[in-house]
Amino acid sequence: MKFDGKLAVVTGGASGIGAACARFLAGRGARVVIADRNVPAAELLASQLGGKAVALDIGDDAAVETAAAAIEADLGPVSVLVNSAGVLQRTLPPNQLAINEWDFVVRIDLRGTYLCCAAFGKRMAERGQGAIVNIASVAGMRSGPLRAYGPAKAGVISLGECLAAEWGPRGVRVNTVSPGFTQTPALDKGISTGTLDAATMAKNSALGRLVRAEEIAAAVGYLASDLASGITGANLPVDVGYLVATPWASYGGLRLP
User: Is the model's pTM score more than 0.85?
Assistant: First the structure.
């Protein structure tokens, strides 16, 4: 799995899954651009990886287009785009979830992913090559109390399929990775506030634990690499068996040793 000299852009790359993806790609030879709203954190990681940090609000269409043009003008053509930037949502019922909070989640998680795909993907299509990996979630594949986040991530999965068909004839592959409950600062915050329970999340997975960010990065790296040259339009869950384990609750739970 090599990216020698290839330019890779990772949105939301300053922390969590995005940072793990940036480290994975840089460790295999990629020149990495970390695009994030948290500029100090992005600059710190970029300095460690020998990459570059770019301030970016992915929900701002003008900012995304400007960033795409500037990155390619300064550093050359982008070969890999990882759309990891995203926000979570409080588990509020519809009568308590304000529409501005719903709009904010969808603006970043779905609209922002589309804007980045459109800005960088059209340039890849013009050159006839490139790989895009979008980060969705198992929340986009099953019902849950995330009435903005879940539909937004379901949209990301559908978006990946649409763009894979759109740009496939022009040499651009588009795939999606859907993480389960992953050990990140954002998840840690949910656990510390009592919104989430680590033991319950681990119990509801076939492997009995949470996902590690590095495991998401490995899946992203594979789909972005030439090893996956025949794969496009796919959605790969990396969830330590959450999707297969949860239906067993209706039968008394998993058969534990």
Answer: yes
